[in-house]
Each structure stands twice: as structure tokens, then as C-alpha cells.
Specification:
By secondary structure, the protein is of the alpha/beta class. It has ten helices and 16 strands. It folds into two domains: 287 residues, Zn peptidases (Aminopeptidase), CATH 3.40.630.10; 133 residues, Alpha-Beta Plaits, CATH 3.30.70.360. It binds zinc ion. The site of zinc ion has 6 residues, from helix 4.
Length: 431
């Protein structure tokens, strides 16, 4: 059978599984795997495992015992399903996170009812990313039906805590060899990054906590103390005047979407100064002895992470020169380097070709403004051939009335099936 003929059969098989794809997505949405705290993980893993076991997969449940957030009340359960082909060949792995963020306010539908309206499924996690998970399962099932004697191996995993860093999920499994050669050659993460886009990687992130220290005094005689809030204000003013203009001018060659995220960015996640207010919103008359700022710096692959840190320290030191009583402590909270997969990796080429075949136009290569589990695959598993590809619109993730288009899921599943077949057959170049 020619690749084109094989693709046509795969596309028809996936299209014929449309109702199954819809009901599978609905079943997954109705398991409210809200994180934090990490609800219903085991139930969701079992839903995936039971279904794939019936199709011949070997199913392994891996609880990240003792991992970040793991407890008997909220076990960090992961599931890894693997099916071996009839001959040797590469292994293609689909990895989806099963956790969803809390629904929050503003919904006009029940976030866990998975209601269908106008060709869309609504609910928390439809777009990010149970729609992608369901599409990958349907894609692989279609491939098994059309090509029972496929070479190599296929894996599908459902992992936890991506929304809170993925430490008891992909990172934990990667530390145990689940995302490394020779076990796995290609990893596709069906995050919602548009059905015609291949996401090659993401920017770097550095979170830091800066605590400005003051000296307490009576609020009626502030000249006897040192206000940590005024010190923090002086720092923020410097960032505003000196750093933001520089960050805005720095541009990356990485194809980050949306366009605004192609610059370096800095967000202040929080600022807390002075004593906590009483119930009446009436704090004590005191000069603030502490002001704590948490900043979130997203940096470009062209930037040096040491330099990113240093330019914040330089500003703090400049404030200190202006204000002799200015004192601070800085603590790194979290950092992840930028990652980017080569655009001519066989994995990218296979997806490009499949997108062309299904959608009739060229694929777009993009990069994500924020991080996702690809970082653990690359940094812990040392596997370069990892991208994100899945249905859903990035902007809808974490929003009220989140949805995924049913036709988008079908087309994405067709792309996944064709790309997987090409990779297993070695048509996109060697592993
Ligand atoms: Zn996600």
C-alpha cells in the first residue's frame, strides 16, 4: 500500500469514529481532574487504561509516591500504555496531561457536563487538553485497525500536574526512563496549539521572590523607620523606566505566538507589603518592615539566563546606591530554560506532511509563550524529538466556557494517525 493510500484509509477510519471521539472526550471531561488539589487522577487514568487495554495495550499505572503533591488523599497517578508492533521500529509516544485548572467564575454551562452546542464540546479541559488526548487515542486506534502489522511501538500516556509544573507527572516518569531512548523515539504532546500548527518549543521562565526589608516605626513618625514599601516602589519605578523599554525591544527568532510574546516579558505576580489588614481593612499604624514581590520573567532563547537574573540584581543595586537604607533579599523560585526542537526533525516533517494532506495547506511552525511538559522530555529525558501538536485554540485554555471544536478534533486525529504511520514506516527520515 502506498503512503497516500494508507493515509486515505486512516482518514476515513478516523472520520468514521467521530461519535466515538465525541463520547470519549465527554467521558474524560466528566471526570473532574481539577488541579490543585489533584482530584480524580486515578479514576481518569483507569478510564484511559481500561479502554486501551481492550485494544491490546500493556497498561502500567505509576503513582509518583513521595513526589511533589502526592498523598493518599490526592495520589499522583499516571498511566502509560504501550503496544508493540510486529517488527522492530521506532516508538511514537503521545503524552497528555490529565489535570485541568479550576473552572473559576463566569461559566454559562456546567463546566463538567461536556455539553455539545454548534459542533463544539464545552467544559473545563475540553481544549486544554482532554480533546487532544481523546484525538490521539482515536488516531492510534484507527492506525491499529488499518495496519495491524505495524512496526515499532506506540505509547499513550496520561500524566498529572502539568498545570503546576509536572513534577509528579512527566518529570517523575522522565527521571525513570519513560521519556528516553531506546524506549521512546518521538513524543507528541497534544496541547491546544491549533490544528494546523506544530509547536517546536517554548520561551524560558524565571520566577524570583524579592523581599525588600525596612525598619518598623510608628506610622505617625515614619522618619524614625525605613519603609519597605517605599523601597519596593523605587525598585518598581526603575523597572518601569529602565527595564521594560529594553525588554520590549528584544525580539526572538523563535516563532512564538501570539506576536506580543516574541519579546521578552516581565510580570509582577504579586506584591505584599506591611502588616496584614484586620477584618475591618484597617491595618496598624506602622512603617512597613517588609515588602515581598514575586516576579515572572519570560525570556528568549537568545538571552543568557545569568544575564536575565543579573539585570534585576543590577537594578536593585542601583536603588541601593540611591537609597543607602535600602536592603533586600532575593530568592529564585523556579526556572526553566527555553527549548526548541529542530524544524527538520523527522517528527516535524511527518506532522507537516500530514497537516498538508488533511487540511490542504501548509503547516505553521510556532513556539509557545509559556512552558509545558516538553521541558521535562528534553531536559530530563534528553529526547530532542518532542513537539506539541493538538486541536483546540490556545486562547481558550483556562477561560470560562472553554470548548473544543469537534471537526478540529477529527482533523487533528487524522493528522496524528498519518504522522504516526509515516514515523513508524521511517518515511520521514531515520530516528
Ligand atoms: Zn495544557
Amino acid at each position: 500500500m502506498t503512503p497516500a493510500a494508507r493515509d486515505r484509509r486512516l482518514f476515513a477510519r478516523v472520520a468514521g469514529a467521530r461519535d466515538d471521539l465525541v463520547s470519549l472526550t465527554q467521558d474524560l471531561i466528566r471526570i473532574p481532574t481539577v488541579n490543585p488539589p489533584g482530584d480524580a487522577y486515578t479514576e481518569c487514568c483507569e478510564a484511559i487504561g481500561h479502554r486501551l487495554a481492550r485494544r491490546g495495550f500493556a497498561v502500567e499505572y505509576q503513582r509518583a509516591r513521595g513526589g511533589v503533591g502526592d498523598s493518599d488523599r490526592y495520589p499522583r497517578s499516571n498511566v502509560i500504555c504501550r503496544i508493540e508492533g510486529k517488527r522492530p521500529g521506532p516508538c511514537v509516544h503521545f503524552n497528555s496531561h490529565i489535570d485541568v485548572v479550576s473552572p473559576g467564575q463566569g461559566w454559562t454551562v456546567d463546566p463538567f457536563a461536556a455539553e455539545i452546542r454548534d459542533g463544539r464540546i464545552y467544559g473545563r479541559g475540553t481544549c486544554d487538553m482532554k480533546g487532544g488526548l481523546a484525538a490521539s487515542m482515536i488516531a492510534v486506534e484507527a492506525l491499529l485497525a488499518e495496519w495491524p502489522d505495524f512496526p515499532g511501538a506506540i505509547e499513550i500516556s496520561g500524566t498529572v500536574d502539568e498545570e503546576t509544573g509536572g513534577y509528579a507527572g512527566v518529570a517523575w516518569l522522565a527521571e525513570r526512563g519513560y521519556f528516553s531512548k531506546p524506549r521512546v523515539d518521538y513524543v507528541i504532546i497534544p496541547e491546544p496549539l491549533h490544528k494546523d500548527c506544530v509547536c517546536l518549543g517554548h520561551r524560558g521562565v524565571w520566577w524570583s521572590e524579592i523581599e525588600v526589608k525596612g525598619r518598623i516605626a510608628h506610622g505617625s513618625m515614619p522618619f524614625l523607620g525605613v519603609s519597605a514599601i517605599r523601597g519596593a516602589g523605587a525598585f518598581l519605578d526603575k523597572v518601569e523606566r529602565e527595564l521594560y523599554p529594553k525588554l520590549n525591544r528584544r525580539r526572538t527568532a523563535m516563532p512564538v505566538i501570539p506576536e506580543g510574546a516574541r519579546s521578552s516579558t516581565l510580570n509582577f505576580n504579586s506584591i505584599h507589603g506591611g502588616l496584614a489588614e484586620g477584618n475591618d481593612g484597617f491595618p496598624s499604624a506602622l512603617v512597613a518592615e517588609s515588602c515581598r514581590i514575586v516576579l515572572d520573567r519570560r525570556y528568549l532563547i537568545e538571552e543568557d539566563p545569568d544575564e536575565v537574573r543579573r539585570e534585576i540584581v543590577d537594578l536593585l543595586e542601583a536603588v541601593r546606591r540611591d537609597r543607602p537604607e535600602f536592603r533586600y533579599e532575593m530568592r529564585d523560585l523556579w526556572s526553566v530554560g527555553p527549548v526548541m526542537t529542530d524544524a527538520d526533525s523527522p517528527l516535524v516533517r511527518a506532522l507537516d506532511r500530514a497537516i498538508g494532506a488533511v487540511l490542504g495547506h501548509e503547516s505553521r511552525h510556532i513556539a509557545s509563550p509559556g512552558t509545558y511538559d516538553q521541558k521535562h522530555v528534553q531536559r530530563v529525558g534528553h529526547l530532542k524529538d518532542c513537539v506539541a501538536y493538538g486541536p483546540g485554540i490556545l486562547d481558550l485554555a483556562h477561560q470560562p466556557d472553554e470548548y473544543v471544536g469537534i471537526e478540529d478534533m477529527v482533523q487533528s486525529a487524522q493528522v496524528m494517525a498519518a504522522a504516526t504511520a509515516a514515523l513508524l514506516a521511517g518515511e520521514a527520515g531515520g530516528a
